[in-house]
Amino acid sequence: MAKSIFCSNFRRLFLPIRSLMIKFEKVTKKFPDGTIALSDIDFEVKDKEFVFVIGPSGAGKTTLLRLITHDLLPTSGSIVVDKFNLKKIPASHIPQLRRKIGIIFQDYKLLVDRTLWENVALTLEVMGRTEKEIVQEISEVLERVGLSGKENFFPQQLSGGESQRTTIARALAGQPDIILADEPTADLDPATAWGIISLLDEINKAGTIILMATHNAEVVNTLSRRVIYLDRGKIVEDKEKGKYGTY
Hints:
This protein is α/β, with parallel strands linked by helices. Helix content is 33%, strand content 23%.
């Protein structure tokens, strides 16, 4: 893991300016084929929380994350992210919502014809940052995730851990208030997985909300953070300092 991942200046950059939360009220998501992915879901995530979303495959974890980004719309119920009511949000405000959220994918979703630098820069380019701002922020982000010196590498030249660190760097670009991580350690060896988890823990301690869907019982039990357990689209339990094996 990179040394001194978060210096005081980086902590300042990522501390939220004001209180922020995610709130689900009576949320149900039913797909056209009749599948009910989520049913009558209620929960809140407060500023600076680290929350694990766990449960068997098909429990609704990924659907829950996609609802937060407005990638999917609920069939019924209300979702609020910061100041945005996702049921009423105008299309013109969706980019503002998504700038508050960084996403870490299990399968990385890196553009294979672009370098590590270009993959991370894309987020900032979409935000309209100047070239000078992009250079400064990417240099700092890559240093913090331990990828300095690999800016010109293409995805196929990276290890699994380096690819996942690249997705974390991309998620951090633009200084989001929320990080959504969907099975970020699923395809990694244990040592590499723990490096990724330690990095996410540092990001959370710097002030960023982390909402992580995972099957990794060892990680959940060791970190002992809040756990939301989903099964068949329902919240079975929502517990502070929860454990994977107790449900």
